[in-house]
Amino acid sequence: MDTGEPTTDRDDRPAGVRPVVLLAAASSAALWLLVGLAGGALTWSASTSRYGVVIDAVLPPTLPSSTLAQPAPWDLVQPALVVAMVAALVATGMAVLARRSSWSTSARAPRFCAVWLVVVVAADVTAALWTVGTAVAVPGPNGYVWALRDAVPAMLATGWFGVVWGWLPALWALRDDTGTSTDTAPVTTSRTPGIVAGAVALVLAVVLVAVQPTIDRDARVAAGGTPDGEPTATPTTTPRPAPPAPVATDAEAPGADWCATDDVQLSLSAVDGALGHRAMSVVLLNRSTSACVVDGFPDVAFAAEDGAAVPVPLDHGASYLGGAATPSAVTVAPGGSAVAALAWGAGGTGEAVATFWIAPYAGASRTPLAADTDLAADATVTVSAWATPVTSAG
C-alpha cells in the first residue's frame, strides 16, 4: 500500500544506520587496543634496535607504555576506558553521517572515505581528551600548560593511527551495507580477504624484522657473551654516598630560647624563577605554646632520589631573588612563622636533588623534605638568613 512517504528515508535508513555504526565503532576500538598492545610489546622488546621508528610508523603508540605500567587496577581500567571512548566517538560520528538522507544512496567510495575520516578525527579527539584530562587531574609544575605540550605528540601519534589503520573499520563497516550504491566499481566483499591478508602480512613482516635483533642478542647472552657481542668484562661498582647526617657535624651552640626541631614544622614553598634563576622559601612554623627564637641561617643538606647525599655548595647571604643577607634574631610567636630563601642558577647538569634536609640551625635535627626542582649538584645554593615573613598590605 502506497502511503505517499519517500521510500528512501522510510526503508533504507533503519536498515543501514545500525550495522554501519556498530561495525565502525567496534572495529575501531578493537584495532586501537590491538595496535597499542602490539606496538608497545614490540617497542619494548626491540628497544635497543634501530627498528623502533619502523614499529611506531606501522603500530602507532595508542597505548603508551606508561599506561600499562600503572598500578592495578588502573593498568586495565584506564585502557578500557580509552577504548570505550574511541568506540563512542566513532559511533557518534557514524550516527551523524548515517542519519543523512543521502547516505544510503551515495556511492560506496565517498562513504568509505567518510568513515575513514571519522576514525582519524575520533582518534585525535581521544588523544586530546586523554592528555587534557590527565593534566587537569594531575597538573605539572607549570600548571595546565603541560597539557598542550603532551597533547601535540599524542594527537600526532593517534592521528597517524587513523591514517594507517582507519581504512579497515571503513571497509568492515561497509562490507554488509545494503544501501543502494551508484558507484560503477564498488568495493566488493570478495576483495576483503586479500586486503586483510595483505595487512596481516605487513604486520608480521614488521614483527619479524623488529624482533630479530632481540633474538640475536639473547643468543649471544645465552652463549656467555654480552648483548653487544663484546667480551664479558668484570663489572665495577662505585659505592653510593651515605645519606646526609641527621645532625650537622659543624653544630652551633643554641641559645636557651632557640626554636627546637620538635617545636616547629618545616616546609618548602613552590619554586619561583626568573631570568635563569630559581628560588624557594623555607617556612618555619612555631607549633609550641610559647615563643621561640631563630637566629642566623637554616642548616641545609641535600640528597638524591635514592637517599644518597649530594654535595651541593652553599653560600650564605641574599640572592638575586631576595632574602635577608644579615642574620638577626627573629622571635616566632606561637602559631607564627619565619622564612629563609634558597636560590640557585638553572641549567645544572650534575646529579639531581630530590630531597632537602633542613634544620632551624646547625646542630638541630634535620627534617627531610621532598621537592620537585631542577637543582643539581653543580649549582651553588645561596641560603639567606631567617627573617619575619613580609605580608602585603590590605
Explain what you see.
The chain has helices at residues 7-45, 52-58, 65-68, 74-98, 108-137, 145-165, 167-174, 192-222; strands spanning 264-268, 272-274, 277-286, 292-294, 299-303, 314-316, 330-332, 337-345, 355-359, 367-370, 381-383. The protein has 394 residues and is α+β, with helices and mostly antiparallel strands. Helix 4 runs antiparallel to helix 5 (108-137) and helix 5 (108-137) runs antiparallel to helix 6 (145-165). The longest helix has 39 residues, at 7-45. It is elongated, with a radius of gyration of 32 Å. The model is unreliable at 1-17 and 178-212 (pLDDT under 50).
Topology:
Blueprint: H1 7-45, H2 52-58, H3 65-68, H4 74-98, H5 108-137, H6 145-165, H7 167-174, H8 192-222, E1 264-268, E2 272-274, E3 277-286, E4 292-294, E5 299-303, E6 314-316, E7 330-332, E8 337-345, E9 355-359, E10 367-370, E11 381-383
Parallel strand pairs: 6-11
Antiparallel strand pairs: 1-3, 2-3, 3-8, 4-7, 5-9, 8-11, 9-10
Helix pairs in contact: 1-4, 1-7, 2-8, 4-5, 5-6, 5-7
In short:
The protein has 394 residues and is α+β, with helices and mostly antiparallel strands. The protein has helices at residues 7-45, 52-58, 65-68, 74-98, 108-137, 145-165, 167-174, 192-222; strands spanning 264-268, 272-274, 277-286, 292-294, 299-303, 314-316, 330-332, 337-345, 355-359, 367-370, 381-383.
